Structure formats: C-alpha cells, structure tokens
Amino acid sequence: MRGKTVSAAEALCMLGVSAGHVTLMLDSGILQGYRRGRRTYVTVESIEKRAASHPSAGRPRAHAA
Hints:
Layout: E1 5-7, H1 8-15, H2 19-28, E2 33-36, E3 39-43, H3 44-52
C-alpha cells in the first residue's frame, strides 16, 4: 500500500466517527488500509476522499418500492 498512513485512532479523530465505524468502512472498502498484527492503519488519501464526499449522518434511507 502506497502513500501516507495513520493509525485507526487518528483516522476516527479526523473523520469524527467511532472506532467501530472505521472498521466497518475498511471492511466495506470505503476506506483503504491494512492490519499489521493488532494495529490497523488507514491511508490519508482515503480519509481525505471520504471527508470530501460530505457523507450525511445516520443510516441510509430505504428506497420506496
């Protein structure tokens, strides 16, 4: 993985979300990063992209069928 990385703790401070949410975003591919042992690292580029997309808070609305 190329580019600058920060710890998951730094990422959650930068994004204003919980540790669990950072893990979910990594698992779903929203954020890019890797795990080394018990530590998780996230690329600064993916954090900046996520912050720039201005995601709304809360659960996404279900589409009316």
